[in-house]
Amino acid sequence: MKIRKNHKGKHYRYSVNRKTLNKTRSSTGKIKDPALKKMWVEGQRVGTNFSEMGLAKDPNKAIAIPSYRKDRLHAAKIVNGFVEEELDEEERLLLGIKKAPVEEGPKRGHVVEELEQLASERADPEFRLPKGVVKELSYFLNKYKFNYKGMVTDRKNYGQLTWRQFRLKIRRFMSIPEQFNVYLEQKNLTADVKPDWPEYESDSEWK
């Protein structure tokens, strides 16, 4: 029995935007970093752009894994006289050999310096507790103040936290002035000042 092929006619998809489709196919993606975006050359390849900036496209190629076999082969070639040993500057001067050509740095090497400077700058801590946690801790502070062992026995201790965990959470809450000062204002207390509450079986809370 002869198998018949189904020659289905091709249809033009009118619903597809060809301009957008070609852009997505030819695009290399959006560059989010402002320093890289400013120095990126659109006409060049990705590898050329990276090498001119002093960056590595593929870290496995830039910093290769050391090969013991290659090192041994190179040492054997030097011993047998197949390869000349690398000379220092003093030895080159004594033998009258010209200096080896100095490798020039990347054309846009300042990009690396800018990125290193940005990385070295310490960002401001933007950690904030969720609203639910702030509300929960405010409830416990209003009711028990710094009596952490009293918080453990409360009915609203759904997470069954220990008194040490309560102390840790409240310390974290007190270390965020943007949130803790709001709580102090609600209690008509002075901001950035430790509340005059007695502590129970705990060391000083205020740093």
From TrEMBL:
Keywords: Nucleus. GO terms for cellular component: nucleolus. One of its GO terms (biological process) is ribosomal large subunit biogenesis. Its main location: nucleus. Pfam families: Nop16. It comes from the Eukaryota. It is found in: Nucleus, Nucleolus. Belongs to the NOP16 family. PANTHER family: HSPC111 PROTEIN-RELATED, NUCLEOLAR PROTEIN 16. This is Nucleolar protein 16.
